[in-house]
């Protein structure tokens, strides 16, 4: 075995993150590491990459015991990682990012000709044909990810850790990534593949290790004998619950929100749709389709160029997010929860109460922790936010609990329309099922929901109608009959027909 972690334990103040966890990684294999948020995956990853030291246990590389004091120690031994959070400098070139801290010099100055030549070799190793002098910020998300892999492999990697590598790329780009990962495996690289996506893991990986509550429940099991259901049971300790069907139905009266000839500065032209009270309206599209940009325009974050937005049949001009909340009772759960959804360095109570600060401030405009707690506590209980205290910083929560906090702030202000962008990206199966039930419940109680998702099963499970967006246009409306095959055929057929007519490619590279 290339990498062995045996009976690893690690504790933090008040929390036992790992308890006798084990993992073995062989040369020339793709090994899945799975588990719910809070299962201990992040801690184990940080031990492997030198961020944390284990309290106890055995850690070896190529049969020799190792002790890592920093990520630099791990890299020096050939243990490299591509994390979910980008680790590239946007205004530096591809070559500068790949060769960072190892830039060649000539006469005391950086030798950019040599740096570009070396970077080009590393890019060619993974089949990436881009100019190494290009600034990172000019690349697509998928290209950035490939650059990170090239950078990791440039350190003569024996072990490559990929953390949720497909979270922000299209299906077509995922296939390209998988081809590369298989090629690296065939060259002898040991690959640890961390993902919540069961179908991807089943299709790609050779073996799997599962963590639950800091312990190993499945150790290096051959993927050939695994099913979706057996993986779920290993992760959550029980079988997957079936989706709960909605009990309500959309109101047939006047639309709650309506767009007529709506055009934006981002590039949308003549968008028309109606969202009714108690309806979940799906907006499906691949990365680059323009869904997030439309959402941002609807809540006053981005420019509207032409057309009408009507709320309850009356024209609405939304000038800011504050305007959307106060005058029109529209909320937005952003896809980018770490930068737009929550304030990581603030406690849970402040994050939940932020939308009602004006209402709960005292006579002198002062906020108190007690007034914030009064708002946050019932919502924290309702959404089952797992935390010992509302004083805990949101940055210390799991992804699923951060998403619950992001949603709770809109429930605090009691919005009528809620736009939810990729609600379950990067969260575990149990949290995903919880969010599906919650979204259904909110709609059943009369909330109008615009659901943006690139997860087809999620869209089929939740939406009453599905709008298909591609290249900033709405191509098709599908009345959802909850049958996956019907929805998939209609949606992908509309996109394919659009592409065949010469309007563009599915390999869109802008942020959706």
UniProtKB/TrEMBL annotation:
Keywords for this protein: ATP-binding, Cell membrane, Membrane, Nucleotide-binding, Repeat, Sugar transport, Translocase, Transport
GO MF entry, a single one: ATP binding
Cellular compartment(s): Cell membrane
Superkingdom of this protein's organism: Bacteria
PROSITE patterns assigned: ABC_TRANSPORTER_1, ABC_TRANSPORTER_2
GO cellular component, one term: plasma membrane
Protein's membrane topology: Peripheral membrane protein
Pfam families for this protein: ABC_tran (PF00005)
Signal peptide (UniProt feature, chain positions): none
Family: Belongs to the ABC transporter superfamily.
Protein's name according to its UniProt entry: Sugar ABC transporter ATP-binding protein
Natural source organism: Rhizobium setariae
């Amino acid at each position: 075995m290339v990498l062995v972690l045996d009976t690893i334990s690690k504790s933090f103040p008040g929390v036992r993150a790992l308890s006798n966890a084990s993992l073995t990684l062989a040369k020339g294999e793709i090994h899945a590491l799975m588990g719910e948020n809070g299962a201990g995956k992040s801690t184990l990853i940080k031990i492997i990459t030198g961020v944390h030291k284990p309290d106890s246990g055995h850690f070896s590389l190529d049969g020799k015991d190792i002790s890592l004091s920093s990520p630099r120690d791990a890299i020096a031994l050939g243990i490299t990682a591509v994390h979910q959070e980008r680790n590239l400098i946007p205004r530096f070139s591809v070559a500068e990012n790949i060769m960072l801290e190892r830039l060649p010099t000539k006469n005391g100055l950086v030798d950019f000709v040599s740096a570009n030549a070396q970077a080009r070799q590393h890019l060619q190793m993974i089949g990436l044909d881009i100019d190494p002098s290009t600034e990172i910020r000019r690349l697509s998300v998928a290209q950035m990810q490939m650059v990170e892999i090239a950078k990791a492999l440039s350190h003569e990697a024996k072990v490559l850790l990929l953390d949720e590598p497909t979270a922000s790329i299209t299906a077509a780009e995922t296939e390209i990534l998988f081809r590369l990962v298989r090629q690296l495996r065939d060259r002898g690289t040991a690959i640890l593949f961390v993902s919540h996506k069961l179908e991807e893991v089943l299709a790609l990986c050779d073996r799997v290790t599962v963590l639950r509550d800091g312990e190993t429940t499945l150790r290096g099991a051959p993927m050939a004998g695994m099913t979706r259901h057996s993986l779920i049971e290993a992760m959550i300790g029980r079988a997957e619950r079936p989706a709960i069907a909605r009990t309500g139905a959309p109101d047939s009266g006047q639309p709650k929100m309506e767009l007529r000839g709506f055009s934006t500065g981002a590039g949308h032209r003549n968008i028309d749709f109606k969202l009714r009270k108690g309806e979940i309206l799906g907006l499906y599209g691949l990365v680059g389709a323009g869904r997030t940009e439309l959402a941002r325009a609807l809540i006053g974050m981005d420019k509207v160029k032409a057309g009408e937005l009507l709320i309850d049949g009356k024209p609405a001009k939304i000038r800011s997010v504050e305007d959307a909340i106060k005058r029109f009772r529209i909320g937005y759960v952003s896809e980018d929860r770490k930068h737009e959804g929550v304030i990581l360095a603030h406690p849970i109570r402040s994050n939940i109460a932020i939308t009602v600060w004006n209402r709960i401030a005292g006579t002198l405009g002062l906020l108190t922790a007690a007034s914030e707690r009064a708002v946050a506590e019932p919502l924290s209980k309702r959404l089952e936010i797992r935390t010992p205290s509302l004083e805990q910083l949101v940055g210390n929560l799991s992804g699923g609990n951060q998403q619950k906090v992001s949603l709770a702030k809109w429930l605090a202000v009691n919005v009528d329309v809620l736009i939810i962008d990729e609600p379950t990206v990067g969260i575990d199966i149990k949290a995903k099922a919880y969010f599906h039930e919650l979204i259904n419940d909110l709609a059943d109680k009369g909330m109008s929901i615009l659901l943006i998702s690139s997860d087809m099963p999620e869209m089929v499970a939740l939406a009453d109608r599905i709008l298909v967006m591609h290249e900033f246009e709405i191509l098709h409306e599908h009345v959802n009959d909850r049958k996956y095959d019907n929805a998939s055929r209609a949606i992908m057929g509309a996109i394919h027909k659009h592409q065949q007519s010469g309007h563009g490619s599915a390999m869109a590279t802008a942020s959706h």
